[in-house]
């Protein structure tokens, strides 16, 4: 993080936080190095792999492609916000192996889980195609997401914010 | 049992090297060679940078030998005098701020008087390009069984083929990274790695230190696949040299572009087959030549070549076999360990060639495999008699069944006749993979494991084998729980920290469960024996006996130990390359169903069936995950992943243009296991981590051959390659024929 820069306020996982950001800082840098939320990972730094996926105002973004200052006044959700009990299906199915893509996978899956209507128009494989995984071959992830969706009653699931 | 560290990963709590909290550290960076080969004329530092703010390290700062210790000591830690490949590390920088560091790297100029490089391993080098020995051959190996020339001379048919495979990047999702600091005179590393003790050895040599002043800790490791076998020794040394000179912790983390451009990759290969067969397709003689691109230093190429040639004749019985192998020096960043370790390359050639033989003789590709597959009592190319009770024909039959092979083949013929722009095909491959180090390798490793009984009755497993996604922690926990009859809560796995764990060997070669897991069973028995209890003691009694032992031996450690002993059935001769190359082989039969779009030439995989015999399956979810992940990684190698070269190094060093499979690119991978327990593996297990890589590319290429009527001889089968294959077989435009 640069020493100078501007001070911004944002909502991080439901909490108001203030942070000083440099003009070249990415949202990923702000989260990992500025705010010490290291759950979000850098996989490629160019928006290809999805490891750094976070929800910005409820929508998944690659945090390596978002200038940190663009988070000003907005809501950011990271993997740290997902309740542990929500993750049972992914754990059971073998959705995580090395774990480096996992926080991004969890955030995309969490978004699908909170916006179920997505599955009416998209396959789970399409929805997860923005998150590269080199370990699982994707079956563990897709099966886990399907089980997660099936395990939760229809209607609005819980979630922060 | 659920994955032990699964929840920690799913919640983002798991700490990888770049997540470790550390105060007052510097970022490290590497200045690299701008040329593939040449003499370093000088190094210039721009005045625009205030260099007093930086820690600068070059070869003169290396206290020991300037070499990364491995099979040979030819690879320098930092180049001195000359460079042998593009991106070779020359100089190191450290600074508290990353942005300053990036500018500084650009402000150092390594001036090189260029010399002619070797950029194609397939060509015989001219004199001015010789840089290793007198022929640039890094390693030459030969396997000989029977009299192949006589067999070929007498064979009714001799069928030839040349096959090539490209480099592949591992693309572990966590890039290479190390954190180094010195503490009470001990240089300490925390980082992403597969083999902590490799780094200890590298440090002993290059830093001139004794092991008691070296501590290597594996941080959570975001994928390895072989890419974090030997490569981390160099980057760990770089971080350590900077930390020692700066007197502060240094974090050296590659970004993805640097990682793609400079790290090891799968060895490119060219394999030539000359095969004598009778009219039924029975193999009479196999003459095989395997050539690998080793890159600019020896590194692990001799052992990759070894595994490559041992697998080159396939899982078939043939009395007359000759396999010549060469690993060639080129001015490329060294190629290295990658899941399968040379076997995928030679098995691609073998299995593509089997289909070519079948096509030339008009035999069914299933039948030619069935008549040649090894039966118990037959021997491999090295003369190893296979008698493991596995039924290789049954493995194939099960795969054909599961894939509806014959029905689909018929359906595809109808589809292809009716469809103007799409072609479907189904292809198969039968293959094998030897688990553990080759030949006497395990004996040399001399692995040791500890299972400690703690004063509170808990049990701690101490090995140097790491979790990198494949499930080591879970399987080790479950093995020790089962052996001692204790619940999972009673067992912890010590961190892979060389100050705490013995050297149980590297986490490679599909050896962790089969070999190290087997040692854990013995060490568990030893722990129980040390408490004075008999073999039938239950877990509750064992835990109470551990607590009791500590009450009567205050302050003393209670450690069950086991060291590797070669099973008596293994006999191997390194000189002649004859004998039992591996303690056990896993066997596979894979079937790929593909569709080729004749307008875009893209190949899509419609279905994939993976049947394998792997001894006992210890954990269904983890084992299936290994197979599915290996298959998809190999689908990338077969269809998508192509390294484009410039001056011997990867030019498309971005995930934007080096494309790996997404969830949308692959079908569900249908996995089935057959189990024929291996008596010397943990609970009957054989190695499985690498096996799935071997059978994928040939099954896919055989399917593409069937779909398009072409004869593919290389992977990746990118749309450009498929276009060439299809257009080449058509009459030229304007032709009257």
Q: What is the N-to-C order of secondary-structure elements of chain A (H for helix, E for strand)?
A: EEHEEEHHHHH
Query: How many strands in all of chain A?
Result: 5
Q: What spatial order of strands do you see in the largest sheet of chain A?
A: 2-1-5-3-4
Query: Based on the structure given, which CATH architecture of the largest domain in chain A is correct?
Result: Roll
Largest sheet of chain B: 7 strands, mixed
Give the name of the CATH superfamily of the domain at 391-430 and 582-737 in chain B: Aldehyde oxidase/xanthine dehydrogenase, molybdopterin binding domain
Hey, roughly how much beta strand do the residues of chain B contain? Answer: 15-25%
Mean pLDDT metric of chain B: 97
Name given to the CATH homologous superfamily of the largest domain in chain A: Beta-grasp domain
**Total of DSSP H or I helical runs spanning 4+ residues of chain A:** 6
Look up the CATH topology of the domain at 391-430 and 582-737 in chain B: Aldehyde Oxidoreductase, domain 4
CATH C-level of the domain at 391-430 and 582-737 in chain B? Alpha Beta
């Amino acid at each position: 993080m640069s020493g100078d820069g501007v001070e911004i306020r944002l909502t991080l996982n439901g909490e108001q936080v203030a942070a000083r950001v440099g003009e070249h800082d990415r949202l990923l840098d702000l989260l990992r190095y500025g705010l010490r939320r290291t759950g979000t990972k850098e996989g490629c730094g160019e928006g290809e792999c999805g490891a750094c996926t976070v929800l910005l105002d409820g929508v998944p973004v690659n945090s390596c492609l978002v200038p940190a200052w663009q988070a000003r006044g907005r809501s950011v959700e990271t993997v740290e916000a997902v309740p542990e009990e929500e993750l049972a299906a992914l754990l059971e199915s073998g959705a995580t192996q090395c774990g480096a893509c996992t926080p991004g996978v969890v955030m995309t899956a969490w978004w699908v889980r909170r916006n179920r209507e997505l599955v009416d128009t998209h396959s789970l494989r399409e929805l997860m195609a923005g998150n590269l995984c080199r370990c699982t071959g994707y079956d563990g992830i897709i099966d886990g997401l399907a089980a997660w969706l099936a395990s939760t009653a229809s209607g609005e699931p819980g979630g922060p914010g | 049992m659920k994955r032990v560290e699964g929840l920690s990963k799913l919640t983002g709590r798991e700490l990888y090297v770049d997540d470790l909290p550390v105060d007052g550290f510097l970022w490290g960076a590497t200045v690299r060679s701008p040329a593939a080969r040449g003499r370093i004329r000088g190094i210039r530092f721009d005045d625009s940078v205030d260099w007093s703010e930086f820690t600068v390290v070059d070869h003169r700062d290396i206290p020991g030998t300037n070499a990364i210790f491995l099979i040979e000591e030819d690879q320098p830690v930092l180049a001195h005098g000359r460079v042998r490949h593009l991106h070779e590390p020359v100089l190191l920088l450290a600074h508290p701020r990353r942005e300053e560091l990036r500018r500084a790297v650009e402000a150092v100029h390594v001036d090189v008087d260029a010399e002619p490089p070797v950029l194609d391993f397939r060509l015989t080098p001219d004199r001015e390009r010789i840089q290793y020995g007198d022929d640039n051959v890094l390693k030459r190996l030969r396997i000989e069984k029977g009299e192949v020339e006589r067999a070929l001379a007498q064979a009714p048919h001799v069928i030839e083929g040349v096959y090539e495979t490209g480099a592949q990047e591992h693309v572990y999702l966590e890039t290479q990274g190390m954190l180094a600091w010195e503490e009470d005179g001990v240089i300490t590393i925390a980082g992403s790695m597969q083999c902590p003790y490799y780094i200890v050895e590298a440090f002993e040599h290059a830093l001139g230190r004794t092991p008691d002043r070296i501590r290597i800790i594996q941080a959570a490791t975001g994928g390895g696949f072989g890419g974090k076998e030997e490569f981390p020794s160099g980057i760990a040394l770089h971080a350590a040299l900077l930390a020692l000179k700066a007197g502060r912790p240094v974090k050296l983390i590659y970004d993805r572009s640097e990682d793609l451009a400079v790290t090891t990759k799968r060895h490119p290969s060219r394999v030539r087959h000359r095969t004598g067969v009778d009219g039924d397709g029975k193999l009479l003689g196999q003459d095989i030549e395997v050539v690998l691109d080793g890159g600019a230093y020896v590194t692990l190429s001799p052992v990759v070549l070894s595994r490559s040639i041992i697998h080159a004749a396939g899982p078939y019985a043939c009395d007359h076999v000759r396999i010549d192998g060469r690993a060639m020096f080129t001015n490329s960043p060294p190629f290295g360990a990658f899941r399968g370790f040379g076997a995928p390359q030679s098995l691609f050639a073998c299995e593509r060639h089997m289909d070519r033989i079948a096509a030339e003789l008009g035999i069914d590709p299933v039948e030619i495999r069935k008549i040649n597959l090894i039966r118990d009592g037959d021997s491999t190319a090295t003369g190893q008699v296979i008698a493991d009770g596995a039924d290789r024909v049954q493995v194939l039959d099960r795969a054909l069944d599961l894939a509806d092979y014959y029905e689909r083949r018929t359906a595809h013929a109808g589809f292809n006749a009716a469809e103007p722009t799409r072609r479907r095909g189904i292809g198969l491959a039968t293959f094998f993979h030897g688990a553990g180090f080759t030949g006497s390798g395990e004996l040399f490793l001399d692995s040791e494991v500890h299972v400690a009984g703690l004063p509170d009755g808990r049990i701690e497993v101490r090995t140097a084998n790491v979790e990198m996604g494949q499930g080591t922690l879970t399987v080790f926990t479950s093995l020790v729980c089962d052996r001692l009859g204790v619940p999972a809560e009673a067992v912890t796995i010590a961190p892979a920290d060389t100050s705490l764990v013995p050297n149980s060997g590297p986490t490679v070669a599909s050896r962790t469960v089969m070999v190290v897991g087997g040692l854990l069973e013995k060490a568990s028995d030893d722990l129980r024996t040390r408490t004075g209890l008999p073999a039938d003691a239950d877990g509750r009694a064992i835990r109470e006996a551990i607590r009791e032992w500590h009450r009567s031996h205050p302050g003393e450690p209670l450690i069950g130990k086991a060291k590797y002993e070669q099973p008596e059935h293994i006999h191997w001769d390194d000189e002649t390359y004859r004998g039992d190359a591996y303690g056990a082989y896993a066997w596979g039969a894979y079937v790929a169903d593909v569709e080729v779009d004749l307008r875009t030439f893209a190949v899509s995989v419609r279905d994939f069936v993976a049947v394998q015999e792997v001894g006992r399956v210890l954990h269904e979810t983890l084992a299936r995950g290994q197979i599915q992940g290996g298959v998809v990684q190999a689908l990338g190698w077969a269809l998508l992943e192509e390294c484009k070269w410039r001056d011997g190094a990867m030019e498309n060093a971005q995930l934007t243009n080096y494309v790996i499979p997404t969830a949308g690119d692959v079908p569900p991978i249908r996995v089935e296991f057959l189990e024929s327990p291996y008596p010397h593996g943990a609970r009957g297990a054989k190695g499985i981590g690498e096996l799935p890589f071997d059978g994928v590319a040939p099954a896919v290429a055989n399917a593409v051959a069937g779909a398009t009527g072409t004869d593919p001889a290389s992977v990746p089968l990118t749309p450009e390659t498929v276009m060439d294959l299809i257009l080449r077989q058509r009459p030229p435009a304007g032709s009257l024929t």
